Amino acid sequence: MKCPFCNHIDSRVIDSRTIEENTTIRRRRECPKCGKRFTTYEKYEEAPLIVHKKDGSRELFDPTKLMRGLLKACEKRPVTNDKIKSIVDNIERDLRAAYGDEAESTQIGELVMKYLCKADQIAYVRFVSVYKQFKDTKSFMAELERIMYDE
What we know:
This protein is of the alpha+beta class. 46% of the residues lie in helices and 21% in strands. It has 5 helices and 6 strands; from the N terminus they run E-E-E-E-E-H-H-E-H-H-H. The protein has helices spanning 63-73, 81-99, 105-119, 121-131, 137-149, and strands spanning 12-19, 24-30, 37-43, 50-52, 58-60, 102-104. Strands 1-2-3 form a 3-stranded antiparallel β-sheet, with no helix packed on it. A 3-stranded mixed β-sheet has the order 5-4-6. Helix 1 (63-73) crosses helix 4 (121-131) and helix 3 (105-119) runs antiparallel to helix 4 (121-131). The longest helix has 19 residues, at 81-99. The mean pLDDT is 91.
């Protein structure tokens, strides 16, 4: 591995450990020429996950886009960034396990609701109010009552 500091063509591994549920290897390296240390990550390459949208279009699954939506729903709520990242990782894992390399956008929405309801009910209600596009207060109240009595 090339040193990012001095561009020496070789480095030695000081420490290796698995992270992210054993899907990534984190390696601490040291350059024998300049002595500086740096970290590399090794992860297997997965086939892209394709999302079928409601309008019939298809796009690549974008975990960053999902993260932004979750951050918006969890704004000013006691949900940590690590928890949100965990939700995104779980959703991607669940999609790949259940649907392979193609999934419907509605399946993503259902998984978001499942994980958000467990993490924070206010964030869940925020997400659902946008996702389900309630037409009136009665349908919104029905959803609130459903989560209140499901506990």
